[in-house]
Write a structure and sequence with these properties.
- It is built from 13 helices and no strands.
- Helix 5 runs antiparallel to helix 10 (about 200-235), helix 9 crosses helix 10 and helix 10 (about 200-235) packs antiparallel against helix 12 (about 265-290).
- The chain has helices at about 5-10, 15-30, 35-50, 50-55, 85-125, 125-140, 145-155, 160-185, 190-195, 200-235, 250-255, 265-290, 295-300.
- The protein has a single domain, classed as MetI-like (MetI-like fold), CATH 1.10.3720.10.
Length: about 300
C-alpha cells in the first residue's frame, strides 16, 4: 500500500463532519423550536441594523405632508406617520438604534459586573461587605429606570448618555451573579492548586475562575439584552432617548399614541418590532439556560 493511499484513507473528510454538525443543529432546533425562532429573528434584526441604508426603501427622515397618515399601500408597506415619513423605513432604522444601544448596555454592564463581582467574591471580608451591602444595595434601592431618567435629564439626551444611564442600573445584576459564582469557585481544588503554585490573584481570577463561571453569565447577558432593548424603547418613549429625527421604536410609539384610533398602524408596527426583539432574546436566553444546565440536558437526552 502506498503512502498516498494511507494518507487518503486516514485523512477525515470535511463533508461527513459538516453533515453531522448540520444534523445536530437540526435536531436541537426540533427539540427547542422557540430557540430556533429566536435565533432566526435575532439574525433578521441584526441584518436590518447592519444594512439599513440598503434595505430601507426610503429615507426615514424624508417628510411628505401630502401623504401623511396614509394607510398600508404598495408605496408604503407600513403606511406613513403624521409627517408623511415611511414607517417601514423608520422601523428598519429603529432596529439599528435598538441593537446598538442594547448591545452596548449589555457590554458595559457586563464589564462592570465582572470586575466588581470578581473583586467582591474573590477577596471577601470587608471588601465583599462594602460592595455587596453598601454599593449594590444602594443601587438596588432605586429602580433602574428612575436612575436612567435622572441621569439623562441631568446630562441630556443622546446615544452615549443613554447607554451610560441604562448601564448604571444594569451592572448590579451581573455583579451579584458573578460574586456568588466566584464565592463558590474560589474554594475549588484547581484554584487552591493554582494559588499553591504561586499564581497571582489576577491570573487565578482571569485564567481559572472566570472560564468556569461564564455559563450563567452568558445566559444573564442574553436575557439582559431583551431588558436593555425594552429599556431603550421606554426611554425613547419618554423623550429621553436619541434626539429626533433619528428613528427609534420608542419615539415612534410616542409620536403615534395621539393617532391610536384614527391611524393605529403608527403604533402597531413599532410595538410589534419591540415585542419580537424582546421575545427573540428571551427565547435564546431560556434555551441557553436549559442547554447549559446538566440536569436539563440529561432530561432532554442531549
Amino acid at each position: 500500500m502506498s503512502i498516498a493511499e494511507v494518507s487518503l484513507r486516514g485523512s477525515p473528510t470535511s463533508s461527513p463532519r459538516n453533515s453531522s454538525r448540520l444534523r445536530g443543529i437540526a435536531r436541537n432546533a426540533r427539540r427547542n423550536p422557540l430557540a430556533a425562532v429566536g435565533v432566526v429573528m435575532v439574525i433578521a434584526f441584526v441584518i436590518l441594523a447592519l444594512f439599513a441604508p440598503w434595505i430601507a426603501p426610503q429615507d426615514p427622515a424624508a417628510i411628505d405632508l401630502p401623504t401623511r397618515l396614509d394607510s398600508i399601500s404598495r408605496a408604503h408597506w407600513f403606511g406613513t406617520d403624521e409627517l408623511g415619513r415611511d414607517i417601514v423605513s423608520r422601523v428598519i432604522y429603529g432596529a439599528r438604534i435598538s441593537m446598538m444601544v442594547g448591545s452596548s448596555v449589555v457590554v458595559v454592564s457586563l464589564a462592570l459586573g465582572l470586575v466588581i463581582g470578581s473583586i467582591a467574591g474573590y477577596y471577601g471580608g470587608r471588601i465583599d461587605r462594602f460592595f455587596n451591602v453598601v454599593v449594590m444595595n444602594a443601587f438596588l434601592s432605586f429602580p433602574g429606570i428612575l436612575i436612567a431618567i435622572a441621569f439623562v435629564a441631568f446630562r441630556g439626551p443622546g446615544i452615549v448618555n443613554l447607554v451610560l444611564a441604562l448601564s448604571l442600573g444594569g451592572w448590579v445584576g451581573y455583579a451579584r451573579l458573578v460574586r456568588g459564582q466566584v464565592l463558590a469557585a474560589r474554594e475549588r481544588e484547581f484554584v487552591e492548586a493554582a494559588r499553591a503554585l504561586g499564581a497571582s490573584d489576577l491570573r487565578i481570577v482571569v485564567r481559572h475562575i472566570l472560564p468556569n463561571i461564564i455559563q450563567p453569565v452568558v445566559v444573564q447577558a442574553a436575557i439582559g439584552m431583551a431588558g436593555a432593548i425594552l429599556a431603550e424603547a421606554t426611554m425613547s418613549f419618554l423623550g429621553l432617548g436619541v434626539p429626533p429625527p433619528t428613528a427609534s421604536w420608542g419615539a415612534m410609539l410616542n409620536d403615534g399614541r395621539s393617532y391610536l384610533f384614527s391611524a393605529p398602524h403608527l403604533v402597531l408596527f413599532p410595538a410589534a418590532a419591540v415585542m419580537l426583539a424582546v421575545l427573540s432574546f428571551n427565547f435564546i436566553g431560556d434555551a441557553l439556560r436549559d442547554y447549559l444546565d446538566p440536569r436539563s440536558r440529561i432530561e432532554a437526552g442531549l
